[in-house]
Design a protein that fits this description.
By secondary structure, the protein is mostly helical. The chain has a domain of about 130 residues: Four Helix Bundle (Hemerythrin (Met), subunit A), CATH 1.20.120. Helices cover about 70% and strands about 0% of the residues. Helix 1 packs antiparallel against helix 4 and helix 2 packs antiparallel against helix 3.
Length: about 210
C-alpha cells in the first residue's frame, strides 16, 4: 500500500485477471473483450490480501533471521520501497495533472497500466522482506503501519474498479462523482505509502 497503496489514480490493470491499483481495460478497438472485473472477484481478492498480510505477520513472529539475512532483507526492503513508492508517485502525479486539466484521462490510465507491475511488486516485496526484519508486532506503531499497508492494498483494488469506470468516460466528460472518488483514492494512496514509510523509519531508529 507498505509502503501501502495506492493507488491520482492508483494503478490500473489491463485485464480482469490482473488486479493491481489503477486498472483500466487495455486500449483496444473492442472494449467488450475486457469486461469489468466482477465486484465479487474484487471482494475475494480483498479477503485473500488480508489473509496474506496476516500470514506474513504470523511468519514474522516465528522467523528468527540471522544478521546476514536481516541485512539482505533490509536492503531488499529499501529497494521494494523505492520501486513501489516511485511508481505510485508517477501515477498519482499524472492523476493530479489530469484533475488540473493539464493531462488527458487516457494519459493517466496508460501510465497507470504501465506502472501497475512495479507498484504491486514493490508492495509485495515490502510485506515479504518485512517478515525477516523482526518487527515488534505488539508495538502500536507497527500495528498502525500494518493498518496502512492493508489500506493501501484495498485502495488499490478499489482503484482497479474505479479505473474501469473512468475508462468508460475516456471520450466523454467524467462525472463529478468519479472525479471525487479518484481524488479520494489518490489521497489514500499517498497517505498510506508515505505514512507507512515514516513509521518504518521511526521503527528502525527506536
Amino acid at each position: 500500500m507498505s509502503p501501502t497503496s495506492n493507488r491520482a489514480l492508483p494503478v490500473p490493470v489491463t485485464r480482469a485477471t490482473r488486479v493491481p491499483g489503477w486498472a483500466a481495460p487495455a486500449e483496444s478497438g473492442n472494449d467488450s473483450a475486457h469486461p469489468p472485473t466482477p465486484p465479487w472477484a474484487l471482494a475475494a481478492l480483498g479477503v485473500l490480501s488480508t489473509a496474506a498480510l496476516m500470514a506474513a505477520c504470523w511468519a514474522a513472529a516465528h522467523l528468527h533471521a540471522d544478521p546476514p539475512l536481516q541485512t539482505a532483507a533490509r536492503f531488499l526492503h529499501l529497494v521494494a520501497l523505492i520501486v513501489g513508492l516511485g511508481a505510485v508517485l508517477a501515477v498519482d502525479w499524472f492523476g493530479v495533472l489530469w484533475m488540473l486539466g493539464r493531462r488527458r484521462l487516457t494519459d493517466v490510465l496508460q501510465t497507470a497500466c504501465t506502472l501497475q507491475v512495479p507498484i504491486w511488486a514493490g508492495l509485495a516485496g515490502l510485506v515479504v522482506t518485512g517478515s525477516f526484519l523482526g518487527p515488534n508486532l505488539a508495538a502500536p506503531l507497527t500495528l498502525f503501519k500494518l493498518g496502512l499497508v492493508l489500506a493501501i492494498t484495498l485502495n488499490g483494488l478499489y482503484a482497479h474498479w474505479l479505473g474501469q469506470r473512468l475508462h468508460q468516460h475516456k471520450a466523454t466528460e467524467v462525472p463529478r462523482r468519479l472525479r471525487i472518488q479518484a481524488g479520494a483514492a489518490t489521497a489514500i494512496s499517498q497517505l498510506g505509502w508515505w505514512g507507512a514509510s515514516v513509521v518504518g523509519y521511526l521503527n528502525s531508529h527506536s
